[in-house]
């Protein structure tokens, strides 16, 4: 269970979920399954494999709770929906490393936890 997730291409699921999300979803990792609305590039596969490792570390429930919690906390810091998404620690780790195929083999467990952004600041008025 520590290899690669199963990639499902040409899926309608990202299209449907994009209607609920603040961004247009190209590919989404749900446990050991990755759904993509088209064909996955190598970078996409690395990105989604990093998310898959994060899922394994936290369990499906842990990931599904923490992911939107980080997003919500970022919104509370005054970020736009899109910025709040890109500053989720799971996404920071995945975006920083999705052009490096060796990363998945080298990465330390819970690497995302060191990617948390600055603590809550009072909103500017
Ligand atoms: Zn991602």
For this entry, give a set of tags.
mainly alpha; three-stranded mixed sheet; 3 strands; 48% helix; globular; binds zinc ion
Structural description of this entry:
Helices cover 48% and strands 9% of the residues. With 125 residues, the chain is mainly alpha-helical. It has one domain. Strands 1-3-2 form a 3-stranded mixed beta sheet, covered by helices on one side. It starts with 5 loop residues before the first strand and ends in a 19-residue tail after the last helix. The mean pLDDT is 89. Zinc ion (ZN) is lined by residues 47, 51, 91, 94.
Explain the layout of strands and helices.
Blueprint lengths: L5 E3 L4 H6 L8 E4 L2 E4 L5 H35 L4 H6 L2 H9 L5 H4 L19
Helix pairs in contact: 2-4
The site of zinc ion has 4 residues, from helix 2 and helix 4.
């Amino acid at each position: 269970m520590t290899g690669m997730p199963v990639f499902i291409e040409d899926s309608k699921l990202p299209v449907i979920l994009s209607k609920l999300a603040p961004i247009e979803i190209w590919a989404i990792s749900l446990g050991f399954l990755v759904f993509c609305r088209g064909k996955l590039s190598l970078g996409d596969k690395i990105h989604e494999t990093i998310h898959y490792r994060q899922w394994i570390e936290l369990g499906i429930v842990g990931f599904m709770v923490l992911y939107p919690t980080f997003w919500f906390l970022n919104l509370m810091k005054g970020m736009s929906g899109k910025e709040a998404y890109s500053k989720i620690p799971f996404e920071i780790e995945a975006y920083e490393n999705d052009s490096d195929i060796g990363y998945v083999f080298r990465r330390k467990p819970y690497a995302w936890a060191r990617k948390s952004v600055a603590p809550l600041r009072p909103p500017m008025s």
